[in-house]
Amino acid sequence: MSDIGSAFATAFALIVQGDTHLGEIVLLSLQVSVGAVIIASVIGLPLGAAVAMFRFPGRSVIAVVLNALMGLPPVVVGLIVYLLLSRAGPFGTLGLLFTPTAMVIAQIVLVTPLIAALARQVIEDMWTEYEEQLRSFGTSTGRSLRVLLWDGRYSLLIVVLAGFGRAIAEVGAVMIVGGNIDHATRVMTTAIALEVSKGDIALALGLGIVLVALSIAVNGVAFVLRRTVAPGRAR
Amino acid sequence: MSNASRILPLELRAVTFETERHRLIKEMSFQLAAEGRTIILGSNGAGKSLLLRLCHGLIRPSQGEIIWQGAAGRDPKHFQAMVFQRPVMLRRSAAANIHFPLSIRGIPRSSRRHVIEEALRLVGLGRFSRTPAHLLSIGEQQRLALARAWALKPQILFLDEPTANLDPAATHVIEEVIAEMDRAGTKIVMTTHDLGQARRLADEIMFIHRGRLLEKAPAAAFFDCPQNDMARSFLRGELLWWQRRELTP
Q: What is the CATH number of the domain that holds A142?
């Protein structure tokens, strides 16, 4: 029990004192995951919408694969990206391994299928409702896709948040491709893993509390945002 | 709207629509004149909605041809509009719901605002301009759907049982606007299984049953003395069964 008590004390101390080392780790975590989620959304949302809208051979296969990839183990993604970026790999010359960029890439690979799969479900339901009306107006396919993304924005915001949740919480991928290098690629989850293995449970728990608080804050902001821009819907 | 620029008349030549297992529309041939209100009558499952969707180009016939005789190389899509049984509302304000198809059809920006105001006023929704469309009642949504169709100034308007889910007051508004559009020269093609509504609105009746066009006649003649025995039974309010012999013992 004293562990938990001192953990809260440590966390509180770290936050109140504005510890620069902690700040650095938190900032990098946010940069990596927010960056990855933005890029994954730019790819995943239209991809999900396209799979929902178009009838083409192999469409159901893609849908199944996307759903399966939602549960992709982060360590496996880390390993694959590691192999691609390592000196001997096809992108080795870029020298990206053990940099934040590599971590962003790994998280994009991790999160894009999740966003695409969930977006597909949201968009498919809307397309069923909208299709005939949009075609009746004479709406082009590209325009229809944009309409669905825009009109589904509140549901899709939740989809993006789910992606962010997965990105900020994972350890395996960023650990392998980032290397958990202090002042360079250390993020909250890898720092927690390290402190636990070093036996500094208090600091690890403190970081954990910050991580959870951050997650709640992001979702809280999204909820308030949704509520203010969409009166009558979020209730 | 001069006759020269009209895409009508619309002609169907032996149009058949079938799925893998069923022939749902069977070799329909007819011509729709450029004006007037044509009401498609028939019981549920007769193929009324399918026929509208075929004419409007939402689905393609399995066989046969659909010809817009006045199209003269223009895309007939741009001169039509359709109101569905369940109104489809975009997740935006009432005004934006009308604005969207106006921009799709390339109506000049400068005139859109005026058209939107006029359309909303026409169906009595002027004060709901900024209200999110999905918060409107179902009757108000259908009025908005009709206003949206009106704003496009179509040459032909298809309506698929537009008042099926509405109360009498909302139905009245819809029928008024339809009459108004008819006066302005828009061809009206509407399905219903409500005989009273058909009597109120129709200039011409098309009676269809099990995917076949059984009778096409001026409304007065149809209601006075329908030529087809199935149509006679329908007018008497009898239930129409699949087999004719069960009908007339």
A: 1.10.3720.10
